[in-house]
Amino acid sequence: MEEDQEAVNLAADWADISQGLRKDLGHQAHSQWIKPIQPGNYCKETGTLDLYLPTEFSANWVADRFADRLSLAWKIARPDVRHVRVLVHPGRRQLPELRLGGGGRPASAPANDSAQGWSKDGTADPIAAVLQGEAFAALGQGPVGIDASQTFTSFVTGQSNVLACNAAQRMAATETPQFSPLYLKGATGQGKTHLLHAIGHAYLANHPHARIFYCSAERFMVEFVQALRQNQMIEFKARLRGFDLLLVDDIQFIIGKASAQEELLYTIDALLQEGKRLVFAADRAPQALDGVEPRLLSRLSMGLVADIQPADIELRRSILENRLGRFASVDVPADVIEFLARTINRNVRELVGGLNKLIAYAQLTGQAVSLQLAEEQLTDILSANRRRITIDEIQRTVCQFYRIDRTEMSSKRRARAVVRPRQVAMYLAKVLTPRSYPEIGRKFGGRDHSTVIHAVRLIEELRTRDADMDGDVRSLLRQLES
């Protein structure tokens, strides 16, 4: 139990430290390098804390550039932490080093050397080496850089993302797609990256011997610059053009890099001419990519541009319910699911992250999942997602919806045509604002808090047995949250 509590404390401290680093480093650098860090083992005797990253590349990058900053931040948060080590997560397999044009043979070269880029006389064949086996996996997280958990099966569809999902499935099918490249456009955390990984999984299942390249545009830039500095551009080009499926995430980050844009342009042309498949993802449409040369822009938009809209509340509910299937032993009340789906509306990643954090905290501390626990433990996420909806705004919207005068919200009239809209407004005020029952009562003509409690409970009950009332409330919620 003590170890569990220590893990909870470390996670809480890391949440605060990570938030501070986000302000210092900016969203892009934080999202790419800091956000994936997970606190690991902590030795109290030596004061050594391990921080885990998913790949050797990211661990080395963070250790080289942010180790001092991380160490200082932890020492401020927890004076007992004296040393910080940045390591590869022990649960992740470290990938083989990619050696291009080197004079030595890889220490772990397989027996079938000729199939892995080594000729029969023992000399290296760099072009063959980059096109075979696991050598090119150094660019990703696994054999093809694909996350095993992000498949089409685990992707929940709704009206906002069904076009993108169907297009992604076509891109991974056995039959040649009618369009290429596929360009997935959507805001942060709406499922673009999930679909990229899902395409990779499905394509590999349909084409077991296929060569797949997955990376972010920023990672593409790092590899490009490294190859340029080491005079290995021939090998870099051969490696890229040897893939059957090219998946590039966050393409907006290649903006302004003229030499990299030119190389990507030539790669796209070469792959398209050979009938290969290409998928790109970005947070904006191709036409909105400033600093991209016209030729590359035309290539990105010549296929299908599939838009992923923000998830509506029905889809958010479905995503949470689907996610709960992974926690069969955890009881999450329906009111908690409704609360999370309604409140965390910026993006799906935050929504799932909030549920994961809530369940992890409940399991580690032995507490039951409840609405109160969700409000206490997800303060940062909830405050970032909550739009400041006022009671005045609620009253105005309800009056317009039911076509009654605004003064009826504070009047003493008891006619049903007035009372029911007033009760709905009280219910919405409790659901959508942090105001207490007495505060809400004062905004409705100085009514007692017991009147507000009665209204809230009544509308909750009516929603369960009156489809028309539930439809009215849902419609009002959509208007107020949009």
From TrEMBL:
Domain of life: Bacteria
Residues of the AAA+ ATPase domain: 178-326
SMART domains referenced in this protein's UniProt entry, alphabetically: AAA, Bac_DnaA_C
GO biological process assignments: DNA replication initiation; regulation of DNA replication
Region annotation (Domain I, interacts with DnaA modulators) ranges: 1-108
PROSITE patterns the UniProt entry points to: DNAA
Start and end residues of each Chromosomal replication initiator DnaA C-terminal domain: 390-459
Pfam families: Bac_DnaA (PF00308), Bac_DnaA_C (PF08299), DnaA_N (PF11638)
Spans annotated as Domain IV, binds dsDNA: 363-482
UniProt region (Disordered), positions on chain: 97-119
GO cellular component assignments: cytoplasm; plasma membrane
Subcellular localization: Cytoplasm
CDD domains: AAA, Bac_DnaA_C
Residues annotated to bind ATP: 189, 191-193
Main localization (coarse): cytoplasm
Alphabetic keyword roster: ATP-binding, Cytoplasm, DNA replication, DNA-binding, Lipid-binding, Nucleotide-binding
GO MF annotations, alphabetized: ATP binding; DNA replication origin binding; lipid binding
Domain notes: Domain I is involved in oligomerization and binding regulators, domain II is flexibile and of varying length in different bacteria, domain III forms the AAA+ region, while domain IV binds dsDNA.
Function as written in the Swiss-Prot or TrEMBL entry: Plays an essential role in the initiation and regulation of chromosomal replication. ATP-DnaA binds to the origin of replication (oriC) to initiate formation of the DNA replication initiation complex once per cell cycle. Binds the DnaA box (a 9 base pair repeat at the origin) and separates the double-stranded (ds)DNA. Forms a right-handed helical filament on oriC DNA; dsDNA binds to the exterior of the filament while single-stranded (ss)DNA is stabiized in the filament's interior.
Assembly and binders: Oligomerizes as a right-handed, spiral filament on DNA at oriC.
Similarity comment: Belongs to the DnaA family.
The protein's name in its UniProt record: Chromosomal replication initiator protein DnaA
Native source species: Novosphingobium lindaniclasticum LE124
Name of the coding gene: dnaA
